[in-house]
């Protein structure tokens, strides 16, 4: 069949490795892993045919893998030591075969080929396979690294056991591991740009850019608040709900399994998301957030294990099959089941076999059935919200779901703009479809906030769509929540945003997005302690919420409470082991906490177990530490590996020529540096004509002007950046621009004003610590200044 979809390939590999872990635990080495010996049972892969293992055992007696000359197996899948007939072949030969299998699943090609078995065996021993991503760029670097490590020639260089390999595959075989990115994930190309580090512009890049990782990752948690849907079946109650009408029941809605075509997975995700949204509006029910629940997609964990990890009383899961029709009607079958965690009993199941146009009725009936089984009283307003039917146009609804799919994919400008296009098409097909208008507004404000299109027109489009949604659904809590995001993202108008949040919280008390947005706003207001408190509350509602843990780490980092920041970053690493930026940020926290570069480097070295060496986040983090160590030759080599198109960040716009120029400047290569500075200047000035109010452009351009000797232009540019985003207006990002201005002023020789700016930065919560002043090379001109030495001494 050729290459498989990446999520399916990762899932099959996980199942195979899980099976091998069980076999290896019994002392059995398969020795003939290949597609023919992997059978499918439903959605699970089964490893079969241990005939070769049996033959080896019978041929060699009590020491089955230590007899010279035994080379049984299939040439295309044999490990080098197996192909050579070495006597000490062990379980790591199976690991190699898994690598071949994975390579084939992802690329549609074997790593080695030949016209004869002998040619293939020879290639296994002496040739190196081409990287997976040379065949297929869409394969996540983490998954590529897992497969390529299996294919190492020496057994000692491979994964040392299936048990060791399994958690890494588990991580990438779920949405939270990077296969089908969710609101949390996002980690390729533009998304990874946030980890860029520059010699002179550390504020918005090296450390403040961490804010982008969190602002994006955390913002995506509610970046597209989907309005609830509506829907209902022939019920088959198999148990009773909880007796108490006053106790707040905790429930998680697991991702509904798509039983239709793989391309229809977005429809099943839409059913899951909207059912979650509906239940979250019931005051007697606490609902785990969708971004936490999605971590359990295709999980092998038991209901009891999930319940214990999330602290929930009930698990709602199900399947969705959508059959398209040439007549346009279409059929949909949804089969939900509500399971009580305490005794693993099915409280309620149902089968909804309807025409597609009844999907909202299905969603409504499911939500109402859950509420009834849990014996939760509903106010009339809540009953109305649960029974909403937002559109009669199924084509519009399909475009809306496609917009959701693009919105929750890996963060790139292309995906964000495509999401808006899908939502706009839905709104055009049904002008009364207020969900679509609300989604357009949310996506537009997000695009403005992260700098993909930082123009007034984008905010105007967001407002226009929100006004339309308000007319169609006046007073709806999700529309008001969208207004809160609009005021926050487009204008940093905290008062209006909080007023909207207060009204939403009164009506939808279980919405974790309200707590999270309140926490973000309080940080921007400079209320970091209050922000931490609300962040902790949100995490209590979602104990495995990587977003919540990451947000808290950011807050504690700004408070310089590094022990707490480290604790939450380690939680993120456990939940998302393949997310490279976690380790880079943890390394920075360790640097500030200990003052030791070696402690930070130890974290970076350890991250290689989980991350691909060419991950852009890892490259840029290593670049920063190259500069701290004054290893400029290494820094230039890393810059040469960067994508020149990767210039966009939330807190900075950084052309690659500028990175290179700064390192060349530090090395004393003035002429080469000047050429690159001029190239960066032209790029930034052109962008400023398009976005004249973009502080990110001014802050970088100030450094460029300073390096080119244009002192007054440098002062004006850096001052303009600070005036656009002052700390008084934005306590999270403001200090970053102050820090950057201090570097610019140092470059032009205005030491006293630079030190004034540094004092202001270190006097408030921020990403910066006296340790930064001690280790970073851009402060070398101030090393002998007594005032600077006092600041750096902490």
- Head-to-tail CA distance between termini: 62 Å
Structural classification? alpha/beta
Helix percent band: 55-70%
- Largest sheet, if any? 7 strands, mixed
Number-wise, the strands total 9
- How many alpha or pi helices? 37
Radius of gyration: 28 Å
Strand content: 5-15%
Oligomer: single chain
Mean pLDDT: 81
Q: Per the principal axes of the C-alpha atoms, what is the gross shape? A: globular
Poorly predicted spans: 60-71, 175-246
Overview of the molecule:
By secondary structure, the chain is α/β, with parallel strands linked by helices. The protein is 56% helix and 7% strand. The protein is built from 37 helices and 9 strands. The strands form 2 sheets. Strands 3, 4, 5, 6, 7, 8 and 9 form a 7-stranded mixed sheet that branches. A two-stranded antiparallel ribbon has the order 1-2. A hairpin with a 7-residue loop joins strand 7 and strand 8. Helix 11 (265-280) packs across helix 14. It starts with 5 loop residues before the first helix and ends with a helix.
């Amino acid at each position: 069949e050729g290459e498989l979809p990446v999520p399916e390939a990762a899932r099959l590999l996980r199942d195979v490795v899980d099976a091998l872990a069980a076999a290896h635990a019994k002392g059995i080495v398969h020795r003939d892993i290949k597609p023919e010996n992997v059978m499918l049972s439903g959605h699970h892969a089964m490893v079969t045919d241990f005939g070769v293992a049996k033959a080896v055992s019978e041929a060699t007696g009590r020491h089955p893998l230590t007899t010279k000359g035994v080379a049984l197996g299939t040439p295309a899948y044999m490990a080098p030591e197996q192909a050579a007939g070495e006597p000490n072949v062990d379980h790591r030969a199976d690991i190699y075969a898994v690598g071949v299998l994975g390579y084939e699943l992802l690329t549609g090609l074997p790593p080695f080929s030949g016209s004869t078995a002998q040619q293939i065996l020879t290639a296994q021993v002496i040739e190196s396979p081409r990287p997976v991503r040379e065949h297929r760029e869409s394969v996540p670097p983490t998954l590529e690294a897992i497969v390529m490590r299996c294919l190492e020639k020496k057994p000692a260089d491979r994964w040392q056991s299936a048990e060791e390999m399994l958690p890494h595959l588990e991580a990438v075989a779920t949405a939270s591991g990077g296969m089908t990115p969710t609101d949390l994930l996002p980690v390729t190309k533009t998304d990874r740009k946030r980890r860029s580090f520059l010699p002179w512009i550390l504020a918005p890049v090296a450390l403040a850019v961490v804010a982008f990782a969190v602002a994006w990752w955390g913002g995506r948690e509610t970046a597209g608040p989907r309005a609830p849907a509506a829907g209902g079946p022939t019920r088959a109650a198999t148990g009773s709900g909880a007796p108490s009408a006053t106790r707040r029941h905790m429930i998680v809605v697991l991702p509904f399994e798509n039983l239709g075509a793989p391309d229809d997975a977005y429809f099943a995700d839409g059913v899951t998301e909207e059912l979650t949204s509906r239940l979250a509006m019931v005051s007697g029910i606490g609902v785990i957030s969708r971004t936490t629940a999605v971590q359990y997609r295709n999980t092998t964990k038991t209901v009891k294990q999930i319940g214990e990890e999330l602290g929930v009383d009930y698990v709602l899961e199900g399947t969705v099959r959508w059959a398209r029709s040439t007549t346009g009607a279409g059929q949909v079958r949804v089969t939900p089941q509500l399971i009580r965690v305490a005794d693993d009993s099915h409280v309620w199941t149902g089968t909804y076999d309807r025409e597609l146009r009844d999907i909202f009725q299905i969603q409504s009936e499911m939500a109402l059935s859950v509420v009834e089984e849990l014996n939760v009283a509903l106010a009339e307003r809540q009953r109305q919200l649960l029974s909403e039917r937002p559109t009669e146009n199924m084509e519009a609804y399909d475009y809306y779901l496609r917009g959701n799919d693009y919105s929750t994919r890996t963060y790139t400008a292309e995906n964000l703009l495509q999401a808006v296009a899908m939502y706009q098409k839905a709104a055009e097909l049904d002008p009364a479809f207020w969900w679509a208008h609300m989604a357009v507004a949310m996506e537009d404000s997000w695009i403005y906030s992260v700098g993909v299109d930082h123009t007034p027109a984008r905010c105007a489009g967001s407002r226009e769509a929100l006004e339309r949604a308000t007319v169609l659904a006046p007073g709806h809590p999700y529309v008001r929540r969208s207004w809160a995001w609009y005021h926050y993202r487009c204008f940093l108008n905290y008062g209006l945003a909080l007023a909207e949040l207060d009204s939403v919280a009164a009506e939808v008390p279980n919405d974790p997005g309200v707590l999270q947005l309140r926490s973000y706003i309080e940080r921007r207001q400079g209320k970091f302690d209050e922000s931490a408190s609300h962040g902790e509350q949100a995490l209590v509602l979602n104990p495995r919420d990587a977003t919540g843990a990451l947000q808290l780490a950011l807050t504690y980092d700004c408070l310089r409470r590094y022990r707490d920041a480290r604790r939450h970053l380690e939680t993120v690493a456990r939940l998302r082991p393949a997310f490279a930026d976690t380790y880079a940020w943890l390394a920075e926290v360790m640097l500030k906490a200990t003052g030791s570069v070696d402690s930070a480097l130890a974290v970076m070295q350890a991250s290689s177990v989980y991350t691909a060496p060419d991950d852009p986040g890892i490259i840029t983090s290593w670049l920063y530490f190259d500069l701290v160590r004054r290893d400029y030759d290494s820094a230039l080599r890393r810059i040469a590996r960067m994508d020149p198109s990767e210039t966009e960040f939330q807190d900075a716009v950084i052309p690659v020529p500028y990175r290179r120029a700064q390192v060349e400047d530090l090395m004393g290569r003035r002429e080469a540096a000047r050429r690159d500075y001029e190239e960066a200047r032209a790029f930034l000035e052109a962008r400023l004509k398009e976005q004249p109010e973009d502080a990110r452009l001014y802050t970088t351009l100030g450094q460029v002007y300073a390096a080119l000797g244009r002192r007054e232009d440098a002062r004006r540019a850096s001052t303009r950046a600070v005036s656009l985003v002052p700390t008084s207006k934005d306590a999270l990002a403001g200090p970053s621009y102050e820090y950057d201005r201090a570097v610019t002023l140092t470059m032009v020789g205005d030491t006293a004003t630079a030190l004034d700016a540094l004092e202001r930065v270190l006097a408030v919560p921020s990403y910066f610590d006296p340790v930064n002043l001690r280790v970073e090379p851009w402060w070398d001109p101030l090393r002998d200044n007594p005032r600077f030495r006092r600041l750096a001494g902490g």
